[in-house]
Write the structure tokens for this entry.
Amino acid sequence: MTRTFLGMPATAPAGVGQLRGEESFPAAARRSLADPQLRRNLGHATRTIRAKSAGVIGELPDWQELRSAGSAIKADVLARLPELLEQLEAKVTEAGGVVHWAADANEANRIVTDLVRATGSDRVIKVKSMATQEIGLNEALAEAGIEPVETDLAELIVQLGDDRPSHILVPAIHRNRAEIREIFLRAMPEVDPALTDEPAVLAAAARRYLRQTFLHTKVAVSGANFAVAETGTLAVVESEGNGRMCLTLPETLITVMGVEKVVPTWRDLEVFLQLLPRASTGERMNPYTSMWTGVTPGDGPQAFHLVLLDNGRSAVLADEVGRQALHCIRCSACLNVCPVYERTGGHAYGSVYPGPIGAVLSPQLTGVADNASLPYASSLCGACFDACPVKIDIPELLVHLRAEAVEARRRPTAESVAMAAAAYTMDRPRLYEAAQRAARLSRLAGRRGRGLPPPLNGWTGSRDLPDPPAQTFRDWWAER
Amino acid sequence: MRIALFVTCLADTMFPQAAKATVRLLERLGHEVVFPEQQTCCGQMHVNTGYQRDALPLVRRHVRTFDPYDVVVAPSGSCVGSVRHQHATVARRAGDERLAGRAESVAGRTYELSELLVDVLGVTDVGAYYPHRVTYHPTCHSLRMLRVGDRPLRLLREVRGLDLVELPAAEQCCGFGGTFAVKNADTSTAMLADKMRHVLATGADVCTAGDSSCLMHIGGGLARLRTGVRTVHLAEILASTEPSQTADERSRLAVRP
């Protein structure tokens, strides 16, 4: 087989899916920060998950070694991705599945829509999946007259609330139980009007609604946590068992999987199935691990389609520094420890991938010009790097992408002029000393610096400026 | 030991008391401090804001200035973090492998103050006296980039008269983050509000840390709200001594039987 080099790989197309926000991060964050209920819900939820996760991670004496192993396996996968994907395709096909290659969101949506249409079904049940959220599959199916029903409880809450997910693992983390009750009363078919906000009562209502849907729907759509190249086995891990229902009951199963989810061997799962639940839900083991290899006559779905999705991933892979974002196993540990995410919530990021990993993954999938404010949505505190079970150096990536964002700009900005001037000054000690003397004139900015113009008033809105000292250190040194 | 002071542009210009305290402390411990005057700024603000090309001459200047010295100290975890984790990267990105190698060599000889005291000089009791209730904020870059761990706390515990109180949720970022504080002022302020809430909950008179930048942020918030709580750099606490310990008095004591 010959390979043709077709230039730089394409980024994810605009106008489809959910990788781009309508406004910049600072603008969206300002609104979230002003919502006291959101702040309370997020603070409570992230603190709870952090404590739970830290507890079970502390039980493993080899956690650091597991992280290194996870990182090494992912680096190996990315180094020989085409070969592994072709191996996966061969094995899935051998086991009775059909493999489809989707270059982007539009192609993936078209493939899935055509496959569902061919079954004659006008409804699909869905396993919680980031890839299908990313490509906007639900919207594409609805447009084709096919009703997608989310079966993960939190995704169902988001879907019924006509809302957007705000967390990778807990998409309705921004909602509390009182809000969930209201959503169910408003949007869940045949719901008991006497519904209370007890968690068990809410779960039972969802269960009654979903059970009917499971039994009457012939097509399911899922994502995948892992795909084993050597056997052609797909794996989904979950907590509720609704995924297991979708993966076993319908006649047709369609799985949409980002190309980076492949692992070389069955044995590699040993590492990730230890890392993922502890980093993610703070459990020793996730309650349900479903695995399937093609189709098995007389058992489970009799038609299986695997859609391998690129949607900008090859472009990420082409960046030697940036590609480590593709190590991500979607555990959301970085969200839970991030002081920015904890306060702004996920919607502020504008993409289905929020938090620190979203701030480095979304701009790479779309091209940094389309998500230019995201690499700056971090104080570079480094908590995400420590929490990542596959050791993605997110602060390094953020700094790298900031440089890409700056260097991609064609025209100088006020900031770039100021930065160039500062660098010029700081490379000339005489000029630098003159600038230090000028800094002492900052007293002219008014008491506590309140007279400063934008963008410096971003500082003085909530913080006093220190009074400049009478003498710089170097002046003091020269006099001693 | 002969120690070169990497003062950092912020301490030089805005917080000279932290740098002067570093000099006084090291000299009191019997070491020679030198100040290479060609130094200006390590370029961290440029790197962290995306201006790596502008940072390149600053990295080159820093490396050239400090290459001749065996031991370099800075009263800042963040600036040492930049020297250790960013300078070589900036050089490599610009294709200057030789500079990257020299930057790594300088980085290997550059220490944050608490690292220098505990690891290189082998002291935790520096003979300081500071009769105040103090809480310590571990700055993100000293904590997670340099892994200074409990070194600052070990130093503070030996300070006579000092009442050290633990800061709740100490490891959470104060929200400074360099230009983050301006670009994402609202989010930064929300983080600062929680940090201040925890500082005030300790009942401390003084909040200390190893970075003037984070202290400028926390202190700027505490001052704006007129809380009456001060921020003081770790070096200033460690440099403080009992008022009676003047040279005259020491010599008088020394001749007494």
Observations:
- Chain A touches chain B through 59 residues (CB under 8 Å).
- The mean pLDDT of chain A is 95.
